[in-house]
Amino acid sequence: MNEAEQIARRAVQIYVESHPRPLHVTMTQAAEILGLSRQTVAKMVRAGQMRLDRCGRIPIEQVDAMLQPV
């Protein structure tokens, strides 16, 4: 993991620790958390990498899983 990725992950971690966490997020919110475009998140949903709930939102656990190192 390069330095920029480490900084981005730390920034997300600080944000998460200082703000109440919703159980589900929109694709736009997921994109912001992951540092991706909304279009990229939409492609991930279409590819089955992330799934929407019945209300069209992404469970926060899926976003968290994407932030974990591989």
In short:
The protein is mainly α and 70 residues long. It has one domain (3-67).
Provide a descriptive summary of the structure in words.
The chain has one domain. The protein is mainly alpha-helical and 70 residues long. The chain is built from 4 helices and 2 strands. Strands 1-2 form a two-stranded antiparallel sheet. The mean pLDDT is 91. Helix 2 (27-34) packs across helix 3. The protein has helices spanning 3-18, 27-34, 38-46, 60-67; strands spanning 24-25, 58-59. It comes from Candidimonas nitroreducens. Keywords: DNA-binding. Residues 26-67 form the Helix-turn-helix domain.
Which SSEs are present, and which pair or pack?
Blueprint: H1 3-18, E1 24-25, H2 27-34, H3 38-46, E2 58-59, H4 60-67
Antiparallel strand pairs: 1-2
Helix pairs in contact: 2-3
Organism: Candidimonas nitroreducens
Domain Helix-turn-helix: 26-67
Protein name: DNA-binding protein
